[in-house]
Amino acid sequence: MKRFWLTFALFLLFFTHPAFADVTLQAKALLQGAYDTPSGLMRDDLRSKGYLPPTQPYNFPPFNYAGSETASATLLAVTGDKAVVDWVLLDVRDNTSHDLLARKAVMVQRDGTLLDPQTGNNTLTVTGIDAGTYSVSIHHRNHLGAVVDAVALSAATPLLNFSAKEPLPAGDVDANAKLISSGPSNDVTILLGYILTEPQNSQQSANYRLNGYFNTDLNLDGVTVYAGPNNDLNLLQSNVLLHPNNHSFSMNFIVEGAKLSHALPLHALTANELLAAALAELANKKAIPPLLTALYGTTAIAYAPGHNTQLLEIDPWVENVLPILSGTEGNTLALAGNTASARYAAFGVPPTDLFAAGQSLAFEAPFGRLLAWLLAGEPLDSAVLTTRQTVALSMTAAGSRSKLKTWLAQQYPTWAIVECNSVASLASCYSTAALVVTDGGSNTASDAFAVKQVLIDSMAAGKPVLYLHTEGWGVDEVSIAVASLMRFSLPYGGNWWADDVANWVNVNAMQSADWDKHGLAGIETVLNHFKAGDYTQTGLDTTFYPGANKVRAVMTALDERKINLFQTGESRLYRLLALLGDRYRQAVKFPMDKDATNATVFLKALFADHAVYNYRAINPAQPDMGNFSRSDFSHITPVTKTVTLTSRQNFRAAGVYALPGQTVTVTRKDNSATTTTIFVNSLRAGSTHEFETNGYKRPKWLQSAAIPLLSGETIAFTSPYGGALQIAFNANDQPVEFVFENVGEHPFWDGSEDNASFTAKLAKGDYDWAEFVTPAFEIHSTLDKMRQSASDTRWGGTLEGFAAATMRYTHNFPHVLAGFKGPGIDVVPEIHDFAAAKGFSIDNLDLVKHMNADQATCGYGCSGNPYDAYWAFDPIGHGDIHELGHGLEKSRFRLDGWNYHASTNPYSYYSKTQYFNTTGGEPECQSLPFKEAFDALQASVGQADPVAYLKTNYWDAVIDNWSRGVSMTLQMMMLAEDQGKLADGWHLLARLHILEREFNRALASDVLWDSKKVSLGFASFTRTEAAALASNDWMVIASAQVTALDYRDYLTMWGITFSAKAAAQVASFNYAVAPRAFFISSPQGYCKGEGFDGEQLPVDGGQVWPLATQKVRLMGNSFR
């Protein structure tokens, strides 16, 4: 029992009482774990197996009982109905205050009668208590207690039956008077953790059977079993699910029993113990494996397979597979492994091919010793090579087969070689051999299963197997099948590009380099710093990130590959690292500051972020998640929900919420032709600014790995953070259906049917996140920001109006201006007819775009899909459409010297213009410097060098000239409309987009370019010249093509230069010359049609700006 309490602090509680008279009582209690319903008796397995301690076991937290009760050997030897089952604690308390007055450790017999172990009597004497009315309770180390109030105690107390209704419920592993199956402080985690960290459970298997007297043994049979027959978990979970008050059968329901005064919570294995175990495991891995020493001794290693060969990739968590030849670039060239019954080895090319060519001859001796290991195992004894052996040879590559046979005959003349050339007869052919050598034995894809199965059977029978890859750097279905059996993979391209070689002075050098290349050195560095507690915030690129990033990469791969190490029993190291991350996660307190917070504390939290591993059943919720979310969802009853939707790239919100620390099960029910992956949260890691002042406000990697889900498949995972679930697709317009189990339902709107629930949930605030989705745009928002967005009265006061505005102004108009077609995008004849006349394609846009209304990855808003921002979403918000604009703008639209934001904002202005035209509402466009531009242009007239004047006094006069660039673009639009070349000048940009995409497609080949260059307007340019065109040259030609206007003189007026060849190209079009005109608009009036109405002045050097001076008002640097 001492081992169970190894990690807990010892608090002893002593009670002293004045002299009072004694009282007596008799009592009965049944323990569910041991109770046998048919007989009405409890099992006495603990006693019969010798596990029941002779001394009371409650002298440790949370009980802290200091009594010295013992049971005699005679008592423990009693069998039959009166045999003892276990120890229990009996408490006598004040009936009003419930202060503890007396405590006694007693034993319970099979029939439930309590027994005083000191006297052997069923009448229990409680000393120091006067006759009176008391509260009496019973407690057990892993069953819920029970209490009976208002008991009249005297010298002749009647029988108290603590199990009058039912036995005391089992499952309270941590003795906190609660049965918790899921969520924070759950008993399942402790039970599993105890099994996994048992020193004798060297494989850390969840199926390990732990014998002895432990609190985790819920059925009191002397064996702790997590999974499988007679497991202890079923008792706990059934008590939770079937509790009469658990009306929804929720795994989150908490069953509460009689509380124990002075109880202290139990904790799982400490972080320091997990840290020590992980370091010990690393030390084991760092040691030179005996096989490598046996193969190479102290000699140099030289092996050069050549570039037309394969590499062998071993997943980091795979055990019992060892690189035996590592290249200097870190690639595995050969490996050895073993199963429970057989040994095997694999090479990316037959070494005998190299030997036959006089290459890598230094490896001949190690190769021979490897054959000895395959035949006889360890300790390696080369004498086996001199005895007669039969080799089964199954190789399709005739040349390699011949070279191998020749080499074997030369080296081991007594050996017999049996050729196995028929897949149908492989089993019988292999059965006579001492060693199987194969390259798969077939190139036919349909043979893959049969080849693999024969090898499985042969290895199960103890046959060693040597796999020699003979397809160069290529692969086929058979080689993939063999590789999967031997637990490695064959990467695309193999060794073709790396051309890796093994060239080491000795095996120590190879092992050391391998250790470093595979990231274990970085992990060791991190753990050593944690052990020493000596981290600083300097040098983290060498002292922290290599190891942390390796851990994150492995945990992400495990999630994406759907591997639960705690079920497979693989990789003790990465299981320990996952548990260490769990442990550190429990201690995190936000916010933290990189300077003010102790560096080791800070980096333990960041390590916990990197070590998140979701594809497992038990993953405790992080208690403090900062400004991301609450962690306590005990007010939520999880549900099962079927979600049907139509696939849209790249992802869509599922409309359900993963609760932190609770396992989500997802089943895909459809057979549609799209891949699907499931992930939690849409938040980008960059939106957590851990190194800003007090910026570490929440976990870093809130978006989980994406877990693939096949048709008909079920997956289960647990996030420590929880969050809104998302589904990603690789194809559009496919009907899909999923069943989500054990999930929450946060505020989610996907149509009018959600109006009532969405509104009610927003108001109630049970979640900290809400989602609002339309067919083409989805908003993932913090609760407060969504409340702000959804309450905007401009959209008619309805959620449908808000959705329509989002589709119209956020989705439709920006993509109209970007020259796209697709669902929800208007077909504008002036745009589409232009494309048709020119023979240009209009690209189809059919994907969902997203916004995270939360924190920005950069600035105050940051582009991407999703883009993220600190503000609440607004369908015509400048920041929102600005960030979308970053995904639409093209660098060719920015002239030489323009700031990159000069091409970002027209999409926002266009939507705002359309809003004004539709509603008359204030568009709130950015202020632009039209007057400053006009004054500069007028001043340049008559200058000796107007272009130089404008460059110095206008374009380069401000560091950030984005507003000057976009002002000129708008003036070009106004001019095209004024000249009758466009009915709506804004469409100039849409046409430019279409032409630019067609231009890029044409650059793919000379043939394409020659077929398209005339219609594009670049007939005088070769493909090479066109690809190298400066933006000024491209724009002077393209703007002419999309408007049938010659902008050369107009651009010169603005001080824009271009090449003579570009000018000649435009001259060849013979288009009307664009006049030197400037269109009059107030700083924000262009969004209300000013300037587009044709009001203009000539740029002649003598005009004066006609409007009253208005200060240019910009709208913040963060999203210009």
Automatic annotation (TrEMBL):
The keyword Hydrolase applies. Residues 1-21 form the signal peptide. It is an enzyme of class 3 (hydrolase). Residues 649-977 form the Peptidase M60 domain. Keywords: Hydrolase, Metalloprotease, Protease, Signal. Pfam families: IMPa_helical, IMPa_N_2, M60-like_N. Coiled coil: none annotated. GO terms for molecular function: metallopeptidase activity. Its EC number is 3.4.24.-. PROSITE patterns: PEPTIDASE_M60. InterPro entries: IMPa_helical (IPR041549), IMPa_N_2 (IPR040711), M60-like_N (IPR035423), Pep_M60_3 (IPR042279), Peptidase_M60_dom (IPR031161). NCBIfam families: ImpA_fam_HExGH. This is ImpA family metalloprotease. The lineage of its organism: Bacteria, Pseudomonadati, Pseudomonadota, Gammaproteobacteria, Thiotrichales.
